[in-house]
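tool=predict chain=A
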Amino acid sequence: MAITKDELLHNARQNLHIINAEEAENFMGSDATILDVREPSEFDMGHLPDAVHIPRGLLEFMVGNHPALQDPSKHLVVYCKNGGRSTLAADLLQRMGFENIHMLQGGFDNWSGTVHKVEVPSNQYPG
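tool=predict ok
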């Protein structure tokens, strides 16, 4: 029997370490990788400081090939727009051997909805 999207997300969340924006901010400036799994157009509109961008649809193919995904013991803070794609991405990374995955609860919407810094590439809004 097929499962629904909600069941898939519920099952994926069972073993994830979910953190809030303040906890995610504590990883800034450390050796942790901040991983944005949104689409390129979303990333270009703004992202967490120093985030590495790998769209969810390419993640499986980038493990081991991207510098940010070489060390499975390194801390990874994963986020998307509001938590759906990052739930699946974090679950996938755990199944692929990554040990220190932290998923940002509420994703970019939660981060930007609080008083946290957002980076916007300068070429997106010419002056």
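DSSP finds six helices and five strands in the chain. The domain at 5-115 is CATH 3.40.250.10 (Oxidized Rhodanese; domain 1).
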